[in-house]
Recover the amino acids of this structure.
């Protein structure tokens, strides 16, 4: 079964992560290609993401999907709110009948260290090096890095949390370091408290840590 994670978040919202093991022909037999994607792997990701929408809700009208100027896909009548993310051999999607949603899936890579200062504020970097370091030491498959060191999983999770809010917003023009403010982490319930300046809203980002994969999402 290509679905490696699925959650019925509430009666109106479902989420899934699909590991892409099929050929392009498999998806093309079920899902139309909505735009010209020339790179073969990106085209496969594109098709898998749309296939997953109908896997979650069999009556999802993916033939009606349109792309906004900001590149956010949407349904004109908003029968469903949805968000799609791709990473490597994975596609993730979240669909809601009632609320706007955003989702992001990431594979942690050490290059995240080079860009952390661009998407985290000084306050957030200080939190990463203090109270969040406890979370950092407990995140990696049961392994405990040396105190004071960081792992790419924590930083990737924080990036993913902000990316899911960015995709929820869908209008572009977001300064990740200043407009999306991370205020606290609830490791037990796997949630991150955020304040999003653009919407003047306190938001909670949920997340799941899978084997070599991080997924975050927001419903608001």
């Amino acid at each position: 079964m290509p679905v490696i994670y699925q959650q019925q978040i509430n009666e109106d919202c479902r989420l899934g992560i699909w590991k892409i093991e099929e050929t392009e022909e498999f998806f093309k037999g079920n899902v139309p290609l909505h735009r010209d994607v020339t790179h073969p792997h990106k085209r496969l990701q594109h098709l898998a993401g749309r296939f997953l929408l109908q896997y979650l809700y069999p009556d999802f009208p993916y033939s009606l999907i349109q792309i906004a100027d900001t590149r956010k896909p949407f349904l004109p009548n908003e029968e469903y709110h949805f968000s799609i993310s791709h990473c490597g051999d994975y596609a993730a999607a979240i669909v809601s009948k009632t609320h706007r949603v955003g989702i992001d899936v990431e594979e942690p890579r050490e290059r995240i260290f080079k860009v952390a200062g661009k998407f985290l504020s000084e306050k957030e970097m200080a939190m990463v090096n203090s109270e969040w370091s406890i979370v950092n030491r407990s995140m990696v498959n049961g392994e405990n890095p040396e105190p004071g060191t960081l792992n790419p999983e924590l930083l990737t999770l924080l990036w993913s949390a902000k990316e899911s809010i960015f995709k929820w917003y869908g209008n572009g023009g977001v300064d990740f370091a200043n407009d999306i403010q991370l205020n606290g982490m609830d490791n037990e319930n796997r949630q991150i408290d955020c304040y999003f300046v653009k919407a003047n809203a306190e938001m909670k980002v949920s997340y799941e840590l899978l084997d070599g994969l991080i997924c975050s999402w927001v419903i608001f």
